[in-house]
Amino acid sequence: MIQHLIDGILIGSVLSLGAAGLTMIMHILRFANFSHAELLSIGAYAALVFDQIFKAVEPFFSEQIGAFSITWALFLAMFFSLVLTGASAVLFDFLVFRRIREKGDELSMVFASFGLALIIRNLIGLSFGLSTQLYSKDIVFATVFSRDPLIAFKLDHLATLSITLVIMLAIHLVLSRTNFGYSLRAVGENPELAQINGIDLKRTIIMVWFLGGGLAAFAGVFYGLTNQITPMIGSDLVLPVFAATIVGGIGSIYGALLGGFIVGVAANVALIILPSGYSPSVPFLIIIVVLLIRPNGLFGESRI
Fold first, then answer.
1. pTM of the model
2. Beta strands in 83-239 (DSSP E)
3. Nearest Cα to Cα of residue 11 among 279, 302, 296
4. Per-residue pLDDT tens for 279-292?
5. d(C-alpha 98, C-alpha 79), whole Å
6. What are the residue ranges spanned by the domains of the chain?
């Protein structure tokens, strides 16, 4: 039970970062972006490319950081992946969503996001192949912290969870202490009134896409560290990420962060009574239960 709980918290940290970026976009632009999960794939593969580049340029970057399997090259690659993925999200909005948004058809944006997700997924498969890849081929064994009850996890998991908590703190500071945070809430509540008060709507939208893409990049890299890198990352995580967003409440970034942990823990604890093949259905069940009991989510508010 405790081991499943720990595993759920670890996967929940990945879902939280992905859901935080998704809920910001849904809060501002008011549409369900099903291509958002593919940004996790872009982030994971971008980090893989930059990791190899840094290792080729400077041998020192191939050294591991302490007892972790994470190398200095991968650590630096995360931040370059953030920039590239954030820029990709802005580009997708410019090429696809902005043009549809100007016509005022939100439903068409949802359908477009489905098509964009398939395009991104297949382009990644054509570029990198369909086989699984790893950031490191070294075998890393889990550290046993307790045998009764059994508690074991890799140090890399502890590193990803720690970095996730730091990112969450940074998100809180940005939302509560910066003009961007105030602008984000204002635009989400009433875009027209926000513009009247001098907020640059286009600039805010660009920053939301970039930040959402950056958070997705970190989520994709962390998922790749604890699992395998495949073009199907987005396909595998789209429902859990949406479930986390709905549980927390659409538009609530804090709710999305908490929702990610709730979905991660619920999906892993369910393995105690369900065969592993049924675990993908858990996010569906969570979405249905939350919509029946509290349609606006834990922290969401009703919107007209």
1. 0.89
2. 143-147, 150-153
3. 279
4. 778 877 888 888 88
5. 26
6. 2-231
